[in-house]
Amino acid sequence: MSNKVLEKALNEHLNAEFYSAYLYLSMSAYFSDIGLSGFANWMRVQAQEEQFHATKFYDYIIQRGGKVLLTAIEGPEAEWKSPLDAIKAVLEHEQKVTSLINNLINLAIDERDHATNIFLQWFVTEQVEEEDNVNEVLNKLRLTGGEGNGMFALDKELSSRVFTPPTTA
């Protein structure tokens, strides 16, 4: 990759995607600890998606002739006040990732790197889906009030989620 500014930014984002996976694994453990195996499953699938995203960045950097630089990943939080607070944290995190993707696109445009801009467009669509999925869970969780039969029904619903690698075309 001849553009070192973009290479550095893509590597930073690659590591941010791995942090996202780490965060969601931590949330999965949290939900397991409090007996919500469906929520734990949902977060584990979320972690797998983030690993997939990181791998896309990894492969793209190599495909463009760049050097992948993996750095230390900061330890994520391990406890939340409630399931509602945890899901709110997911939404905030996904919104942050969306802003990171937007910043990368702006950089690619500034650097006139059309290939990277095109590569990043897939992530724009993916982030719309990510935020929508989290909002759906958050809205259902709010409807349950975080307790009772509604909470158990939502937990059961979330247990059915499976990781399916997104289409990349």
In short:
By secondary structure, the chain is mainly α.
What does this structure look like?
This protein is mainly alpha-helical and 169 residues long. It has helices at residues 4-33, 37-63, 83-110, 114-144, 148-158. It starts with a helix and ends in an 11-residue tail after the last helix.
* Number of helical segments with 4 or more residues: 5
Order of helices and strands: HHHHH
Q: In whole angstroms, how far apart are the ends?
A: 22 Å
Poorly predicted runs: none
Radius of gyration: 17 Å
Q: Biggest sheet, in brief?
A: none
The structural class is: mainly alpha
Helix content: over 70%
Estimate the strand proportion.
under 5%
Q: What shape does the CA trace take?
A: elongated
Quick one: how many beta strands? 0
Rounded average pLDDT: 96
Write the layout of secondary structure elements.
Blueprint: H1 4-33, H2 37-63, H3 83-110, H4 114-144, H5 148-158
Helix pairs in contact: 1-2, 1-3, 2-5, 3-4, 4-5
List keywords for this structure.
about 170 residues; mainly alpha; 5 helices; about 75% helix
